[in-house]
Amino acid sequence: MSIRPARRRALLLWLALIASVSCSGGGKDGTVTEPTAVLTTLTVALSSATLQVNQSSQATASGLDQNNRAIGVGAVTWSSSSPSVATISPSGTISALAPGQTTITGASQGKQGTATLTVPLAPAIADFAIVDAQFTQGVQVADGSLPMVLAGNAAVVNVLVRASTAVTRPMQIVLRLLDASGALVRSDTALSVGALGTAPSFEAPSVQFLVPAAVLRSGLRWQVLRDPKGAAPDDSVANDAFPRAGAATLATVTVPPLNIRFVPIVLSAHGNATGAVNTAVLPQYLRSLLSIHPLGVVNARVGTPLTTAASFGITPSGGAAPFWQQVLAELDLARVVDPVESTANWYGVVVPPAGFNNTTLGGFSYIPPTTANTGPGTRTSVGVQINWFTRPTQARDLVAHEIGHTFGRAHAPCGGAGSPLDLTYPLATGTLEQSGHDVFAWANGLATSAPTVDKSAGDAMGYCFPVWSSAYTYRAVLAFRGLIAASALTVDLPRVRAVPSAARRRTLVVRGSITNGHQLRLEPAFALDARPSLPDRAGSYRVEGLDADGRVLFAHTFEPFVLAHMPDVRPFTVVLPSDAALEAQLVSIVVRGPAGTQRIDRSPAAGMVPVARATQAVREGNGMVNVACADASARGILVLDSSTGTVLGSAPAASLRIAAASAAAVAVVCSDGVGSQRTRVDVR
């Protein structure tokens, strides 16, 4: 149906009126009002709900109205249920005072909110203590009583730091060195290595300091300090220094210089095989010696080669005791009559000839009773050259071993070492009492610290490998080199001395040996310039010189020497003052003793015609010189460099081949057994 316009307008007006009334609400004026928002919930929050003592936190409050909408809380009143645990300021700052728990309450507009604060027990602070510190030059003892040898090796200070709980972070340790007046000489800082624990040991020191040899001196004082900057505090500073009572004076000792002449040995019986030693390789020979023995200044040089006719043996295995005994005796004779270095240590260097892959023994040496002895049978050793053994360190260890014998040391009971054994060695295993440290390696740039040498290592005077010096041997060598008799041998040692302040003069050198206690042997005697060396006490053997009528021209008693590695052979050498008149009358030399009697007579006895009327020295094409006495019946020959007086070789024969490639002339001494004559011979 259709609606007329007038009615349509009326209808629209009526509908609008109804809509207006329905939207006007229930107010008197026809409007709708919201209810007022009020705080109904107050919440307290802490910036940190756990605090350590003396730490702080901030409390804040927030609120919600009846419609769970955020609403301001206004001023808040704060309180702590346990003020002894923590307090809170009017602004909400919390201060932790003691371990425990407390409830933090905030109140506003009649509403409250709470939060729990925990103050735990403080974590335990580790206690650190320097429990020990020791100076060492390679060998240590439990009480740290070994003195430092001045003018020798550097020193290392091994420091032990104990921690009550394991700590892995590095810790700073300071070594302070002061002179006798207290003035600071040196200060060094190092960091601990590895984890610090409750049981530190010198097998793995917490800290090591390297002290150069030039810094060591008499009267030096020292102290070690922990964490001087306070970066790692602990619960007690009383044990953060060592020694506790203050700087201690370092124990030091001075020993005589050690002079060593290394002598290449030429084996004329084996194609002139010559021991390889020269200035460039001397440090390799000295490496073990300098690392383990208490030495100060060491002067080492290479001497003129010495030629021997001794046979090394039959391939492939040689180097039995008789070979070494002969070479040692010939080298000792050369040392005793040397015009320059008769009191030095001589070390002969031998190379096993081609075709030999084994040597029964690696070296030989005499064992003197005191360091005051410088005569025959005291300071001479021989050994195999470096780079021959399969074990890289064996030759250099032999140098330390054999020269150790010349310091009066017998064998340590390790590795089946033979007689003479040191029966007072403290461990039946012949090993170390305490671990050592290779100070020499660090001081000479071969390592970045002083590596630990495990106490299972064998003593240098035994036959075990690897080797180091025990504290027992170290002390004994110190005592020996300090002019104190400290031999541990179980045999009666000879005491042969050079006549005090005796100058070189004409002497008669009488040599021989006793084997197995009953085989007495005399070598040809030589009249040579040397320092007389006579026994300083009565011995069980007697040497006599007789004239043609049997009258005694001289007589001295003596004890034979002790040989390392060959206890059944006791060699002897007596260097007697002589002159032309005595030698003109001398016809026989007699040695008597428990092994019997041995006599050597001049030949020919009648007329005492000198053996060497003329000699020959002929150069060969291989750098050798063939020297021969004119009389083929000569019993002994000794050849010297005519310009230096150095012995080039000797033999119980009438001829000898020597290494003397550049010599223009040599001095030849030929012996008839009792008398001898020296002749200068041009090499042609």
From TrEMBL:
- Indicate the transmembrane segments per the record: none
Secreted recorded as keyword: no
Q: Identify the SUPFAM superfamilies for this entry.
A: Invasin/intimin cell-adhesion fragments, Metalloproteases ('zincins'), catalytic domain
Q: Which domain of life is it from?
A: Bacteria
Where is the signal peptide, in residue numbers?
A: 1-24
Q: Pfam families in the record, alphabetically? A: Big_2
Protein name per UniProt: BIG2 domain-containing protein
Matching Gene3D superfamilies, A to Z? 2.60.40.1080
Q: Sorted alphabetically, which keywords does the UniProt record give?
A: Signal
Q: Does the keyword Signal apply?
A: yes
The BIG2 domain covers which part of the protein?
38-118
